[in-house]
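Worked example 2:
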Amino acid sequence: MSGQYMYLVTTYSFCSPQLRMLRVLDLEEVKFTLAEKDVKNIGLLHHMKYLNIAGGSYNFALLRSIGKLRCLQTLDMREANIAALTTAITELRNLRSLRCSKRLDYGCFNLIDSPKGCLTIMMCFPMIFTTLVNFSDRANLTAEVRMACSTCWSDTKGVMVPRGINYLKNLQILEVVDINGTSKKVIEELGELSQLRKLSVTSKDATENKYKVFCAAIEKLPALQSLSVDAEGSSDVGTLEWLDSVCSPPPILRSLKLNGSLWDLPNWFGNLTQLVKMHLSRSRLKEGNTMEILGALPNLMLLRLYRNAYVGEKLIFRREAFPNLKEIDIYFLKELRELRFEEGAAPQMRSIEIYGCKLKSGIVGTKHLPRLNTIVVQDDGDVANFDLLRVEVDAHPNHPLLQVSKNQGHNDLGSIEGSNAAAEATE
């Protein structure tokens, strides 16, 4: 935020005539304290098109008047002290981007981690409405207790969405929706957002019925290009096996991010012909046909496998598979022992990043990657026979950069397991 902009905001009240034509207001991480009348009177800025209040503690007070901002096109309320959007949001018929997520820190009202402290604060709660507590602290404490009680101390970042969300026909970006807390009727309404390009949801602890309704809804989104489904909470990770209920995925989906157990890839993955980016986390996919299905995706350029997304011992890129893949990122796959590239596989591969993996059978076949530029091994990542990998990299026509976070000796697990791997690495 520029100094001139800061001066403008702090000099005038939001109900001042000098600001009535304001179109852009960014209050993310502001260092000054807003007065109560300022928060309530943001709704008077009828020409506002962009409003960013990410990380604010005064969001509940603002939501009561936000429906007056009929020209608003972008609303950012990420990491906020809110658990649910009010019905006023459905009045914003020009809204194109709605980003909201719940702050997972319940502050003084963390019943799970600090039950005694939470009960003590609750007993003293009436004091916050006295003159002993300023507006900023009062707003923060009120928002925290509302959020904690209304969500029963939920451990996901999703926000409940009200009925009438289907009225926002111009909406292109919507995140993050809590499928568990949102009603089945509203989940159905998501399928009516025909202009929606990006959708992000949390799904932990939702019912099977809601899962099926959600799957049916995303099938009706012809413009959807980016989908994120997160089943992780602060203490455990839920399942995403229910995604197999999808019969026909969005036709132009280009980015897919899934966090939760799958075990096997859903049948419709083979239809993702337009997919460019895929991010899988905690999926626990087995060797089987996982690489065969992913390798057949014609436009896939970026593949990220995080935190036991894959539990096989070998990750093998077969001949003619992954025709457009340019980057593979592997993070903390505890079971992985070998990364192998066959001749003719991934001809566009440029970058390999390995974090926190113990590759006891090494990285084999980098010489088959004609466009390779970078190999990164970091964060306790170890590779067997690191010297042989370095020899292979040095002999590569592109002379790829081999980047490690520790000295070479610590990254070398010793001799490669298996004579075939050793033979190919030394050719």
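Residues 15 and 41 are 6 Å apart (CA to CA). Residues 1-11, 416-427 have pLDDT under 50 and may be disordered.
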